[in-house]
Design a protein that fits this description.
alpha/beta; Rossmann fold; seven-stranded parallel β-sheet; 12 strands
Length: about 325
């Protein structure tokens, strides 16, 4: 199979770092850079993209594979002119570990009431509070793909009681799992800390609404219902999360993603006393790890081997 050029099209501050790493990793292979160094479009065999402009990929007549530089592929799939070639997403052990770290961190912050102790520190209050065991608290993970399964297993090892929900049936040893819309309410009724790691698809966008949040368990050992969204911003309806917090359906939330990013300065989330905001960094993966993984994938493809982490356009992930 001929060794075609690699196009790097990254919209964001990491573009220069990616360019340098691609040049180092693919020594001897031609690297083209969007938007100014595309050259002859017929030379491009592989496109490595992150939020590249819609319509760009249709310009390359001999394109063989598209590599998305992140786990979320909703932006790529929304391109009406997306070529009918294999699309692979980033799915690296480093990515799974980083998202898992985020989930465990915030689950433990909730479980150990760290916000309460932070408030007491500001007021110079020395006061302990009754503390339940992690085994008394049920954490529910929505989305049991590679990352979700890794997070669920790790949370279970920490000691939490873990349940999981996914669109299609998944089996994780030692963890009770639910699948499909018919079982969603049963899953929510057990869940005190809801961790959301779903992809953004037409069936999941807006799923984190007030009706769903009201179904979480509020009378358990966690002392209320809590939300951790490290999935995609389109999953949540911001106004409904705020309403759930204000009415008490939610006792707190840790949000890494939002429908509009960066989060606007006038968003009520910034100053809400029971909300923790992070700038979409739960899965900040080392660019070196992604570049090395793409190198491995291109090697497999050119040796006639199947690609890993292929995206189903029908499912949306």
């Amino acid at each position: 199979m001929p060794r075609g050029a690699i196009l790097l099209a990254v919209d964001g501050p990491q573009a220069a770092d990616y360019h340098r790493m691609f040049l180092e990793h693919f020594a001897g292979r031609e690297i083209r850079l969007w938007p100014d160094q595309i050259g002859d479009t017929a030379d491009i065999a592989y496109a490595c993209v992150w939020r590249a402009p819609h319509g760009l990929l249709a310009r390359f007549p001999d394109l063989k594979v598209i590599f998305n530089l992140g786990a979320g592929v909703d932006y790529v799939l929304a391109d009406p002119a997306l070529p009918n070639v294999p699309l692979a997403r980033a799915a690296n052990p480093d990515l799974s570990m980083r998202v898992t770290e985020y989930c465990v961190l915030h689950a433990l912050m909730i479980h150990r009431r760290q916000r309460l102790y932070d408030a007491q520190q500001r007021e110079r209050v020395w006061k302990g509070h009754d503390q339940s065991a992690a085994s008394e608290v049920t954490v529910g993970v929505m989305g049991l793909g590679v990352i979700g399964a890794h997070a669920a297993n790790t949370l279970a090892r920490v000691g939490f009681k873990v349940v999981g929900w996914s669109a299609s049936p998944k089996e994780i040893p030692g963890i009770e799992t639910f699948a499909g819309p018919a079982s969603l309410d049963a899953f929510l009724g057990k869940t005190e800390i809801l961790i959301v790691l779903l992809p953004s698809t037409p069936s999941t966008d807006g799923i984190l609404n007030l009706a769903l949040l009201r179904k979480l368990r509020r009378d358990g050992a966690a002392g209320g219902a809590f939300l951790i969204n490290a999935g995609r911003g389109k999953l949540q309806t911001d106004a409904d999360i705020l309403a759930a917090l204000d009415e008490g359906s939610l006792a707190g939330a840790a949000l890494d993603v939002f429908p509009q990013e960066p989060l606007p300065p006038d968003s009520p989330f910034w100053t809400h006393p029971r909300v923790t905001i992070t700038p979409h960094n739960a899965g900040d993966i080392s660019p070196q790890a992604i570049v090395a993984d793409i190198g491995r994938q291109i090697g497999r493809f050119e040796n006639g081997e199947p690609l890993d982490h292929l995206v189903s356009r029908q499912r949306g992930y």
